[in-house]
Amino acid sequence: MRVIKAKSYQDLSRKAANIISAQVILKPNCVLGLATGNTPLGTYRQLADWYRKDDIDFSQVTTFNLDEYVGLAPDDPQSYHSYMRRNLFDMVNLRPEACHIPDGCAADLSAACRDYDAAIAQAGGIDLQLLGIGSNGHIAFNEPGAAFEKDTHVVTLRESTLRANSSFFSDGCVPRQAITMGIRLIMQARKILLIAEGPGKRNALHRALYGSISAEVPASILQLHPDLTVICHVEEDT
Ligand code: F6R
Prior knowledge:
31% of the residues lie in helices and 18% in strands. The chain has helices at residues 9-26, 41-52, 80-87, 109-122, 159-165, 183-187, 202-210, and strands at 2-5, 31-34, 62-65, 67-69, 99-100, 128-131, 153-156, 177-180, 191-197, 228-233. It has a 7-stranded parallel β-sheet with strand order 1-10-9-6-2-3-5, with helices on one face. A 3-stranded antiparallel β-sheet has the order 4-8-7, with helices on one face. The longest helix has 18 residues, at 9-26. Residues 35-39, 66-67, 132-134, 138-141 line the site of fructose -6-phosphate.
């Protein structure tokens, strides 16, 4: 495990974008696992900026997102599909057919989960998985208590996660269920890059990296990953 302390959110974003760029440069047809939320916004801005300057080419890259809310159509502005188009997909030359996000509107959600796992396997697995961390220690939408041995599945979100994510919803009403990659699938990524920003993440990050490995802190399983990089900026700014 490598832990890199960033000087600022901008520094964190630039360092994370550097690691993603290095992956794309070294393996142009790589498979990236992507996250949503507030933390990766600066990373995506930086990648889009480098793309505009012709410093990075996504034309052969395939992506798989971690999660999507159940019941939100891809064109719903509050869906993770829309978030990804706004913040990355429409800003770079990723091929639309190479960008995958779980289908939260599938008539058969279990089949959609199985299809998602199969598509990841078909693509050769994830080379680099970007993760954020919830202040309750969740990764993707694997909430405290979640089993470690799951692939893509449907989850019911905890109150703390609904509250944390309510700022993304104009009416404050966050869907109560989501499709998420499970922890087994995340742990199969060849490299993991975890980014954490803000004092609100300090405690969760500390428990995840240095506490005992327990389902109560889903991110603690990452201690067992052979190639984990953490970039954090969780101290109070002075
Ligand atoms: C997002 C995701 C979540 C977030 C986490 C942190 O796809 O899976 O686990 O990474 O909730 O969110 P932010 O970055 O908004 O603090």
